[in-house]
Design a protein that fits this description.
By secondary structure, the chain is an alpha/beta fold. It contains eleven helices and eight strands.
């Protein structure tokens, strides 16, 4: 399975700076795109502006969220159909920051997943455990609960594992941490899904940096990475996207 590199720009980027960053990444992505799939998820305000540019370079267009309902009186929200209308192919759902700051629960995320799929979007569903859950050995139970409650049994999207305890804390997940969690997640998926879990990419998303990317991408079961802050620099993001690949001839 081809690995996927997703850049989540979060709430960063204006028209000019966003276009410059996307163009710099796009201009250098050619050799990488033959080996890995690349998606950028800018803020909503940049989606229509960047859609043709990214398409020209063979980069997928991602969004950072969508509403659970098709339409309605939801001031400030955006629907899955609106995203599809702009050319969006992927949508990040259940990110730890949405769960924390917007109080999103598993039931809501599941509804968003179903709505995204109705409009042809590939949902990238984030799961992860806190430091307290890790210390109390509750991580596996919590991750299994997120999988069973967020994903319909015929789920055909992407799972992204975010160890919340390793994001912005200075505590790095080891290769053993990542491999053991990914093995558990693949097992949980195989038990929950009606489809073959081998077709489900499981990305790693814990503060990925260029210097760590090759070792992370080499871990068995890792289907790619979800990149946050490092995706705001073309040099850093490209360093991650090409990590571990043979030099272009």
């Amino acid at each position: 399975m081809r690995q996927m590199i997703i850049g989540n720009w979060k709430m960063h980027g204006l028209l000019q700076t966003g276009a410059e960053l996307a163009e710099e990444i796009g201009a250098a992505i050619g050799p990488i795109s033959h080996a890995r799939d690349v998606v950028l998820a800018p803020p909503f305000t940049l989606l229509s502006h960047l859609a043709p540019l990214l398409a020209r370079h063979g980069i997928g267009l991602g969004a950072q969220d969508c509403h659970a309902d098709a339409e309605g009186a939801y001031t400030g929200d955006i629907s899955a159909e609106m995203l599809a209308d702009l050319g969006v192919s992927h949508v990040i759902l259940g990110h730890s920051e949405r769960r924390e700051h917007h109080h999103e629960n598993n039931a809501l995320i599941r509804r968003k997943v179903q709505r995204a799929r109705e409009h042809g979007l590939c949902p990238v569903v984030c799961v992860g455990e806190s430091e307290q859950q890790k210390e109390d050995t509750l991580a596996q139970a919590w991750l299994a609960k997120q999988i069973t409650e967020c994903l319909p049994r015929d789920f055909d999207g992407i799972l992204a594992y975010e160890p919340i305890w390793a994001i912005g804390t200075g505590k790095a997940a080891t290769q053993h941490d990542i491999e053991s969690r990914l093995a558990f997640l693949h097992d949980a998926l195989s038990q929950h899904l009606e489809t073959d879990d081998k077709s489900t990419r499981v990305l790693y998303g814990g503060s990925v940096k260029p210097e760590d990317a090759a070792s992370i991408l080499a871990v068995p079961g890792v289907g790619g990475v979800l990149v946050g802050g490092a995706s705001l620099s073309a040099r850093s993001f490209l360093g991650i996207a090409q990590a571990g690949l043979p030099p272009a001839s």
